[in-house]
C-alpha cells in the first residue's frame, strides 16, 4: 500500500481500484471517524486543466447533502496526488449484487428507483447532473438503502478525456443517446440512466446488448426501445411503460422530472397493493417543481463520449468531520490552487479542507494550522540555524579533498539511472560547476545539466501551450523549439533539420535577448545529442514500420500482398520519416508485377 497517511487520515486498507484512481479505507487520526478516501492518479494531478476542473466540481459537490447521496467530507492534496474523503458506506454496489446472479423483484426495483429519484431531485435542484448513472455508482446498504456516488465525476474526467490508467471514460451500457452523439446533457440524461438501472435490476442485464461498445451504442440509437416484459413477463404494464418512457431516445419525450417519476412509481406501487389508496396525481404545475431550468447551466461540450468498461471501485464514510479552524480564502481551500504560471515549478503540497467546516464558516486546511505558530520568534531562529549550517557545510566542503569526486560520482550514478533521477541532482550539478570550473569533468556535467534544462523547458512550453490555447500563441523561437522537440522522439532526421533551422534563423542575430540566446543554446545542445545518436536508433517509427512491411511481405502473396503494400504506400506517402519505406514498397510491388523478378527481397 503506497500511502500510510493522507491529510488527517491514517490509511488502513485498499477498498478498490479503477480507471479514476484508488479508494482506501481511512481513519481520522483525531476524531476516529471512518471514511473512504479516493486518491486520483499523480498523472491527473499534473494535468493543469484537470486540476482546474477538480476545483470547480468540488465546489459544486459541496452543495449536496442528502440521505441518498454519498456525502463529501473533505478534499486535499498529498505530494501531487489529489484526493477527497467520503462517507464510508458498508455494503456493495448494485453492479456487484447483479454479478452474484441476484435479480430484484419489480416492487423492490421500483422502491430503489424512488430513492434514486429523491437523490436526483436534490442534485438537480442544486444544478448538478450526475452524467454517469449506472448500477456500479449505486451503493446498496445492509438495510436496503441506496446511496448514489460519484456525482460530477463524468464531467470532471471529461475535461481531460482520460482516466488514471489512460483509458477513456464511461460505459456504453447506460449512456444516453445525446451523450453518445455529442449533444449537450440535461437532467433528462440522468433520467435515461435511471431507466437503464431499473431495467438491469429486474432483468439482470442492460437494455441493449452487443459484442462491443460500438454495437451497443448503435443499437441504443437505432433499435426500438425494449420492453422489460419480454424478459420478465410478471412485470406490471405500468412499470414497463415508465421504463420505456425513461429510455426514450428523444430527451423531450422522457418523463419530465425525478419528482414526477417518483410519484408515478409510488402511485403504481400503491395501486397494485391490496386495499391501497392511490396518491393524488401530480398537477401539471408540479412537473418542474424545485428546478429553475432558466438558471441551471447544463451545457457540457467537454463530456467524454468514448464508451469503455465501467469504472470499478468502492466507497465512502459515515460521520461528519469536526474541527474548526480559521476560514480560508477560496484559493487556499482548493487543492491545486497554487501558481501554475509558465516556468514556475509546482511546490509539493499537503493540504486538507473539511467540507463540514466550510459549511459552518470554518476551515481545516493544514497549511493554515501553522498560522498560530509564534513566527516572530521562530523565523529569526530558523534564519540563524540556516546561516550556521551553511557555514559548516562550506568549511567541510573546502577541507574535504574528496568532496568534488563524491559529487561527481553521485551525479554520474543518477545519469546512468535516467533523466528522472538526474533532475533530482540539478542543484548538485550547479554546485559542482561552481566549485570545479576547471575540472576535466565539468564539461560532461554541463552537458547533463543542459539536457535537464531542455526537458524542463519543453515541459514548460507544453503547459503554456495548453494554457494559452495553442502553440501559435508562443513566441516564434519557442514555437520552433517545441516543434523540433516533439519530433525528436519519433523522427531524429526531421528533428535535426528543425533544430538546425532554429539555430540558423535565431542564432545568427548579433544581439539576442536572454530568452532567445537560451533557446538557441538548448537547440545547439540537442543537435549535438542527435549527432551522437547511433544510426540504428535514429527512428523507432521507421524501424517498426520496416519490420511490419517485411512481415506482411513474407506472409502474404498474390493480390492480398499487393493490396497491403499499396495501402502502406497510400498511408505514409508524404511523410518524411517514411520516404525510404514507401520507395521500398513501390520496389516490391514492381518486382511482384514482374514474374522474372519476384524474389520478395
List keywords for this structure.
alpha+beta; Phosphorylase Kinase, domain 1; Transferase(Phosphotransferase), domain 1; 4 domains; seven-stranded antiparallel β-sheet; three-stranded antiparallel β-sheet; 9% strand; flat; disordered C terminus
Q: Mind explaining what this structure looks like?
A:
- This protein is of the alpha+beta class and 601 residues long.
- The chain has four domains: 5-89 and 316-367, 2-Layer Sandwich (Phosphorylase Kinase, domain 1); 92-295, Orthogonal Bundle (Transferase(Phosphotransferase), domain 1), CATH 1.10.510; 454-537, no CATH class; 540-597, no CATH class.
- It has 24 helices and ten strands.
- It has helices at residues 42-45, 48-61, 94-99, 106-125, 153-158, 177-180, 187-203, 213-222, 237-246, 258-271, 330-333, 355-359, 366-369, 375-399, 403-417, 419-423, 426-435, 442-468, 476-488, 492-506, 514-531, 540-555, 558-572, 579-593; strands at 5-6, 9-18, 21-28, 34-40, 72-78, 81-87, 91-93, 138-141, 146-148, 350-354.
- A hairpin with a 2-residue loop joins β5 (72-78) and β6 (81-87).
- α7 packs across α9.
- It starts with a strand and ends in an 8-residue tail after the last helix.
Amino acid at each position: 500500500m503506497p500511502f500510510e497517511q493522507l491529510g488527517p487520515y491514517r490509511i488502513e486498507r485498499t477498498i478498490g481500484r479503477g480507471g479514476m484512481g484508488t479508494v482506501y479505507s481511512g481513519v481520522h487520526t483525531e476524531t476516529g471517524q471512518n471514511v473512504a478516501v479516493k486518491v486520483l492518479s499523480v498523472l491527473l494531478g499534473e494535468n493543469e486543466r484537470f486540476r482546474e476542473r477538480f476545483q470547480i466540481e468540488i465546489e459544486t459537490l459541496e452543495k449536496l447533502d442528502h440521505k441518498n447521496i454519498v456525502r463529501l467530507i473533505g478534499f486535499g492534496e498529498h505530494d501531487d496526488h489529489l484526493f477527497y474523503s467520503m462517507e464510508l458506506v458498508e455494503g456493495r454496489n448494485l453492479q456487484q449484487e447483479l454479478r452474484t446472479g441476484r435479480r430484484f423483484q419489480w416492487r423492490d426495483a421500483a422502491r430503489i428507483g424512488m430513492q434514486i429519484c429523491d437523490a436526483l431531485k436534490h442534485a438537480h435542484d442544486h444544478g448538478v447532473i450526475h452524467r454517469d448513472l449506472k448500477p456500479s455508482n449505486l451503493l446498496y446498504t445492509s438495510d436496503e438503502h441506496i446511496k448514489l456516488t460519484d456525482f460530477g465525476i463524468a464531467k470532471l474526467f471529461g475535461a481531460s478525456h482520460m482516466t488514471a490508467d489512460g483509458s477513456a471514460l464511461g460505459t456504453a451500457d447506460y449512456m444516453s443517446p445525446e451523450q453518445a452523439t455529442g449533444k449537450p446533457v440535461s437532467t433528462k440524461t440522468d433520467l435515461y440512466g435511471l431507466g437503464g438501472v431499473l431495467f438491469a435490476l429486474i432483468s439482470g442485464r442492460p437494455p441493449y446488448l452487443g459484442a462491443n461498445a460500438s454495437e451497443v451504442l448503435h443499437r441504443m440509437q437505432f433499435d426500438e426501445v425494449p420492453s422489460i416484459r419480454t424478459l420478465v413477463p410478471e412485470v406490471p404494464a405500468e412499470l414497463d411503460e415508465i421504463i420505456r418512457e425513461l429510455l426514450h431516445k428523444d430527451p423531450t419525450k422522457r418523463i419530465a422530472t425525478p419528482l414526477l417519476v417518483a410519484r408515478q412509481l409510488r402511485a403504481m406501487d400503491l395501486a397494485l397493493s391490496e386495499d391501497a389508496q392511490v396518491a393524488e396525481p401530480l398537477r401539471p404545475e408540479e412537473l418542474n417543481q424545485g428546478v429553475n431550468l432558466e438558471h441551471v447551466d447544463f451545457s457540457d461540450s467537454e463530456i467524454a463520449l468514448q464508451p469503455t468498461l465501467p469504472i470499478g471501485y468502492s466507497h465512502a464514510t459515515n460521520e461528519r468531520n469536526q474541527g474548526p479552524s480559521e476560514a480560508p480564502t477560496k484559493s487556499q481551500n482548493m487543492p491545486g490552487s497554487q501558481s501554475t504560471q509558465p516556468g514556475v515549478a509546482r511546490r509539493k503540497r499537503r493540504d486538507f479542507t473539511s467540507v463540514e467546516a466550510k459549511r459552518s464558516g470554518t476551515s481545516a486546511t493544514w497549511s493554515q494550522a501553522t498560522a498560530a505558530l509564534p513566527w516572530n520568534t521562530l523565523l529569526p531562529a530558523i534564519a540563524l540555524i540556516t546561516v550556521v549550517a551553511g557555514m559548516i557545510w562550506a568549511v567541510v566542503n573546502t577541507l574535504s579533498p574528496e568532496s568534488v569526486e563524491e559529487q561527481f560520482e553521485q551525479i554520474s550514478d543518477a545519469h546512468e539511472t535516467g533523466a528522472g533521477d538526474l533532475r533530482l541532482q540539478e542543484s548538485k550539478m550547479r554546485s559542482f560547476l561552481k566549485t570545479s570550473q576547471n575540472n576535466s569533468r565539468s564539461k560532461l556535467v554541463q552537458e547533463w545539466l543542459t539536457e535537464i534544462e531542455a526537458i524542463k523547458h519543453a515541459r514548460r512550453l507544453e503547459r503554456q501551450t495548453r494554457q494559452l490555447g495553442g502553440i501559435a500563441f508562443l513566441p516564434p523561437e519557442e514555437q520552433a523549439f517545441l516543434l523540433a522537440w516533439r519530433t525528436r522522439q519519433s523522427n531524429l532526421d526531421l528533428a535535426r533539420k528543425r533544430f538546425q533551422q532554429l539555430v540558423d534563423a535565431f542564432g545568427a542575430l548579433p544581439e539576442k535577448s536572454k530568452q532567445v540566446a537560451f533557446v538557441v543554446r538548448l537547440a545547439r545542445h540537442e543537435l549535438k545529442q542527435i549527432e551522437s545518436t547511433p544510426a540504428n536508433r535514429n527512428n523507432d517509427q521507421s524501424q517498426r514500420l520496416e519490420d511490419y512491411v517485411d512481415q506482411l511481405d513474407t506472409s502474404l502473396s498474390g493480390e492480398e500482398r499487393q493490396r497491403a503494400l499499396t495501402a502502406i504506400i497510400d498511408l505514409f506517402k508524404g511523410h518524411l520519416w517514411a520516404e525510404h519505406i514507401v520507395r521500398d514498397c513501390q520496389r516490391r510491388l514492381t518486382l511482384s508485377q514482374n514474374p522474372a523478378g519476384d524474389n520478395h527481397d
